[in-house]
Amino acid sequence: MLNYFINNLPDSFVDGGDILWNGRNAIKAFDIGNTDSLKRIVVKRFKHPNFIQQIGYTVRKHKARKAFENGMELISRGIDTPTPIAFAEYRTNGFIKEAFYICDELVGYTEIRQDIERSDWNRDVIKALAVFFSQLHKAGILHHDLNNTNILYSLKDGEYHFIVIDINRVTFYDSIQSIPMRERIENMTRFTSNYDLFLLFAQEYAKACQIPDSEEWVKSALKQKKRHDRNWDRKKFLLHPNRWFKKR
């Protein structure tokens, strides 16, 4: 049943499924099987590549394949992500025209955004999140898009459990010692713009990683975070299509 579904994905994706997200990429949920063995899966269809990208994908991996391989590697290193099932590439004359990533449905998890974007942000979540980042780095993992929608958690018996999604941009190292400290700090800069929250996070991360001279390290991490945010704001300003036409 699953093989048939994958072989017919371009058509079945358009005609069926429940829409979970519809933007640059599209995500849908599907029920596969019969009433006795029904399985709920999630399918992500990546944006159709332009001609230049099609040429590029003849010599490098498509994001769909990266997501599948990264998912398997994350799980092997003890980091949870929705269980990868398959990736599918559909080619014409050797060029990728469409690509999909298929994984298990994720149930019972909440985006951390709901807990950190309010004025009374959840300190317990932040402390647990800092420990989770330390676990990622100790496993030699840099997920390059750890914003507050790509980290989810569940709370059971007072324990927070985290899971990561959107995993096509991940770098794997042998160990935490192989990851430059600057890269580790940069990896922490995307999930919040609240500096009080980030300060607590950095303090808890330093504690979890047993970083020597942690007070100075936290100051350095906060300084790098502020520099990252200034550069990000400047980039958004320069790329904003209407900025040249705003009234002064």
Notes on the protein architecture:
A hairpin with a 3-residue loop joins strand 1 and strand 2 (26-32). With 248 residues, the protein is α+β, with helices and mostly antiparallel strands. It contains 9 helices and 10 strands. The chain is globular and about 55 Å long. 40% of the residues lie in helices and 23% in strands. It has helices at residues 2-7, 9-15, 51-56, 63-76, 113-116, 123-138, 181-186, 195-209, 214-239; strands spanning 18-22, 26-32, 39-45, 84-92, 95-104, 110-111, 141-143, 151-156, 159-164, 170-172. The strands form 3 sheets. Strands 1-2-3-5-4 form a 5-stranded antiparallel sheet, sandwiched between helices. A 3-stranded antiparallel sheet has the order 6-8-9. The chain has a two-stranded antiparallel ribbon with strand order 7-10. Helix 8 (195-209) packs across helix 9. The longest helix is centred in the last third of the chain and has 26 residues, at 214-239.
Furnish the topology, listing elements before pairings.
Elements: H1 2-7, H2 9-15, E1 18-22, E2 26-32, E3 39-45, H3 51-56, H4 63-76, E4 84-92, E5 95-104, E6 110-111, H5 113-116, H6 123-138, E7 141-143, E8 151-156, E9 159-164, E10 170-172, H7 181-186, H8 195-209, H9 214-239
Antiparallel strand pairs: 1-2, 2-3, 3-5, 4-5, 6-8, 7-10, 8-9
Helix pairs in contact: 6-8, 8-9
What overall form do the CA principal axes indicate? globular
Termini separation (Å)? 61 Å
> Helical element count?
9
**Proportion of beta-strand residues:** 15-25%
For the largest beta sheet, what order do the strands appear in spatially?
Answer: 1-2-3-5-4
How can the largest sheet be summarized? 5 strands, antiparallel
Share of helix, binned: 40-55%
Give the SSE string: HHEEEHHEEEHHEEEEHHH
Low-confidence stretches: none
Structural class: alpha+beta
